[in-house]
Amino acid sequence: MTNAEHDADADDPARAAAAPRRTTPETMRVTDPTRVRALAHPVRMDLLSFLDDVGEATATECAVHLGQTVANCSFHLRTLAKAGYIEPAEPRGRERPWRVVSRERNITPDPLDPASRRAVLELAEISVRREAERYIDHLRHLEHDGVIDPELIPLTQLSTSAFWATPAETAELIEGMHALMKRFDGRTVDPAIRPGGARMMRLLTAVNPDMAFEPAAEAAPHAPQQED
């Protein structure tokens, strides 16, 4: 560990006094606009994503991965900790790593709070642009590399779809996608259970009603009936 990292952590009373606690596997639900805005920053989003990927990391390790200074990473890590997204992990000697409180975060606007709605919108705009840029960077990487692994081509997909579905059917679809992802739980934090040849994959899903179309007024004669 560098002296810069040790000083950044040791000189922070809140960081130095915080006792490591068990990371909860439950989904973190966030509606508070202050906590939502704490995420709406590119560096903090990159830090949280990196901690999701590696399990835990020090400010120095984060700085190396992100190409940032240790001091800058320490500042943004403390901001994430204050908002409740990360917590101190078990010390490694003099090193002070951080870990996420939960890898599953549900950021949802409070329909009765305009500030919450605005904060979630700001975060969503940053998130979608960030993921789109990452996907485009991947395509450029494939295009400009001298040798392309043919196995990577079918692993890189972009698809869109439009369909008519009731709210209940849409909720079932969303739950089904979450269930499909459950089979990969644990592989990020435990390399021992990763199958040979497994790669770190990125998946972005988005579903929303198309407000240009009115809901179906009544069921067609042969349409399935909604269950109560």
From TrEMBL:
<dbReference type="InterPro" id="IPR036390">
    <property type="entry name" value="WH_DNA-bd_sf"/>
</dbReference>
<dbReference type="GO" id="GO:0003700">
    <property type="term" value="F:DNA-binding transcription factor activity"/>
</dbReference>
<dbReference type="InterPro" id="IPR011991">
    <property type="entry name" value="ArsR-like_HTH"/>
</dbReference>
<protein>
    <submittedName>
        <fullName>Winged helix-turn-helix transcriptional regulator</fullName>
    </submittedName>
</protein>
<dbReference type="InterPro" id="IPR036388">
    <property type="entry name" value="WH-like_DNA-bd_sf"/>
</dbReference>
<dbReference type="Pfam" id="PF12840">
    <property type="entry name" value="HTH_20"/>
</dbReference>
<feature type="domain" description="HTH arsR-type">
    <location>
        <begin position="34"/>
        <end position="113"/>
    </location>
</feature>
<dbReference type="InterPro" id="IPR001845">
    <property type="entry name" value="HTH_ArsR_DNA-bd_dom"/>
</dbReference>
<feature type="region of interest" description="Disordered">
    <location>
        <begin position="1"/>
        <end position="27"/>
    </location>
</feature>
